[in-house]
Amino acid sequence: MEQSPEFKAQVRLLADAGRELAERGWLPARTGHFSARLDDQHIVITAPGRGKDLLDAHDFMVVDLEGHLISGSGDPGPETFLHIIMYRHDPKLGAVLHTHSVHGTVLSRQVAGTLLLRDYEALRELPGCEHPSRGLQIPVFANHPDMQQLAAQVDAAMTRNPELAGYLINGHGLYTWGQTVELAMQRTEAFEFMFECETLARQLVV
Ligand SMILES: [Zn+2]
Predict the structure, then answer these.
(1) Ligand 1 centroid from CA 48, angstroms
(2) Per-residue pLDDT in tens (0 to 9) along the chain, 206 residues
(3) Which residue in 101, 114, 154, 206 has a CA-CA distance of 20 to 30 Å to 141?
(4) Binding of Zn(2+): at which residues (predicted)?
């Protein structure tokens, strides 16, 4: 599978995404992870603990949608399930990106339950937004020590709102996704832009 054109193409896109997101400072201390779909049963995902600025094929694992390691070095960590549930949920989903930015982390600790993003033009980059003035509710989940339980909560939120574009984990970071790596990148940038605006705006109000 590591020789397949799909694997090589997705690894190249994820490596480019990793370099860009690392340069922006959204992946401190080798955190964050990314995945992309290979076929209806397999994804490629970053192995835990790798720096994301210089990723190559050795930094990725292939896992199936049950969480089994198919190829590559590393141990599919518990957060792998937060990726897998997304692909199981939506057969058209192509990529999931997870960042640990300062603004996303600070904001996630200030709100409980949901974060309302409203009146940002960047909302137009996300599904489910009729108009920026209507806003978008983003779930903020507790950073549950049992990742399977957190995955079940995310799954329930996806079922309630199939147009959900992303979510925060308290004190942890952002998960967002799209049909392609490029689209997931665009959404990451839109979210992170709004997190930064929101954090600055709250500082001004205090
Ligand atoms: Zn994380």
Answers:
(1) 10
(2) 777 899 999 999 999 999 999 999 999 888 889 999 999 999 999 998 888 888 889 999 999 999 999 999 888 888 899 999 999 999 999 999 999 999 999 999 999 899 999 999 999 989 887 889 899 999 999 998 888 899 999 999 999 998 999 999 999 999 999 999 999 999 999 999 999 999 999 988 75
(3) 206
(4) 98, 100
Cα separation of 47 and 157, whole Å? 27
CA of 133 to the centre of ligand 1 (A): 31
Domain boundaries, the chain: 5-205
Q: Is 98 within any annotated ligand binding site?
A: yes
Cα angle 90-96-100, degrees, rounded to a multiple of 5: 140
- Beta bridge mates, 63: 43, 69
Question: In this structure, what token pair is assigned to residue 38?
Answer: 């290979």
